[in-house]
Amino acid sequence: MTSDKEVSKSKKGYSKRIQRLRRLIVATVLASCLVPTCICVILAVRIDRIKTDYEQAQANLEWYRDTFGYEKDIMAGGGDKAQVVDSTATETDSDVNANTTYDVDYANIAVSGAENPENIEGTRYVYLTFDDGPSSNTGEILDILAKYNVKATFFVCGKPDSRYSEAYQRIVDEGHTIGMHSYSHKYSVIYESLDSFKDDLKKLREFLYHNYDVMPKYYRFPGGSSNDVSNVDMHELIDYLDKADITFFDWNVSAGDDRAGADKTTIYNNIVNNVPRFKHCVVLMHDSADKHATVEALPEIIEAIQAMDDTVIVPITDDTLPVQHIK
Question: For residue 162, what are the contacts with CB-CB under 8 A and spacing of at least 6?
Fold first, then answer.
């Protein structure tokens, strides 16, 4: 027969095995929880790093496109037109373009379109317009406009990145006018054919309507209506806009902020010295990422214009007389 000691010893051995089994089960459960947690942490760190790299790459791409891929001194009237530099342009091409000089007299540019309202006789109307945005500079520009209680017009491109959502929304909420400046801003796409132009325009209108509940009816051609790079007769594109009840706007005063070496003083002088020449001044500026000098000059530009006699700064509306380089 088995003695009491042997039974007790057997029970202790069995109890130890149970405890070891329990510890093994607990360790297994902990490991099964810990391993996925560690994997999740590692993946989260890698995703965050990839996201940071992506955002930096997007910022660099935006700067590159703003610097080399957007219109460069495309003017109307006398003087040579610069070659439009697409996003695939080389550094050499950009250098050649940046060194081009111009002698443009906007006073000789014909204007056509909407009739003047009867009650604006004697008043100079200045329309501050910003192309190519939104960008990292747009928020600061909106802050400046709000400080001076000024409404402007933003000819925007299609930028679905969430970084720009607030800027689009602020433009709408703060009473500025949104115009269209193409979705892609790629000359080779927009001006490839009439169908390409239609597709790009439709994409931008739908983007703005579905995301910000606005259906813009003002357009500015990348490079202006007088650009010489379009594969399509610009009159065909203008006719299409007319049929869609969309008015296009060029400009008769340019900040020159898309020229190489433009600084705060140059931008200020280009605008303030030329505004008095016109009763209706559509001023071309840019709110793209590399246009810091434009942001710096803007407060003094607004103050100088507001100090002019019988002069007001207003956004583009249906009553605005369009400045159009070609009819």
Answer: none
